[in-house]
Amino acid sequence: MRINDRYAALGADAAQNAAARNKVGPNGAGAAGATSAEAQSAVTVTVSAKARELADAQASGGGDVDEAKVARLQQAVSSGTLDVDSTKIAQRIVNGD
């Protein structure tokens, strides 16, 4: 799932919430008579360093993904030959690996 897909539905709600906070009416006029373009230009957004890092990784193709390993795992799952060692998985969870 891509981040943009996950939060796309929140866009309209976020815009409505921002409009309500800024008291922007349906015609775009704000409490002080500002147009919607003026009201939107007054909004300040701060993006964290982690968000920038994630966006850069997504833009560059996903970062540290071993495409060959993913293909091997997909093949093993689809053919029913994937061997899962539950003891090894449990140990890695307990050890925090």
Can I get a quick summary?
This protein has 6 helices and no strands.
Record keyword descriptors for this entry.
97 residues; mainly alpha; 2 domains; 0% strand; elongated
Tell me the fraction of residues in β-strands, as a range: under 5%
Helix percentage = 55-70%
Number of domains: 2
Terminal residue distance: 24 Å
Structural class: mainly alpha
Can you give the mean pLDDT? Answer: 74
Radius of gyration: 23 Å
* General form: elongated
The parts where pLDDT drops under 50 for at least 5 residues are: none
Number of strands: 0
Number of helices, where a helix is a run of at least 4 consecutive DSSP H or I residues = 6
The biggest sheet, with number of strands, parallel, antiparallel or mixed sense and barrel status, is: none
Query: Order of SSEs, N→C?
Result: HHHHHH
Summarize the helices and strands and which ones pair or pack.
Blueprint (H helix, E strand, L loop, with lengths): L2 H6 L1 H13 L13 H6 L7 H11 L7 H13 L6 H10 L2
Protein described:
The chain has helices spanning 3-8, 10-22, 36-41, 49-59, 67-79, 86-95. It has 97 residues and is mostly helical. The radius of gyration is 23 Å and the shape is elongated. The chain folds into two domains: 1-64, no CATH class; 66-97, no CATH class. The chain starts with a helix and ends with a helix. It contains six helices and no strands. The protein is 61% helix and 0% strand.
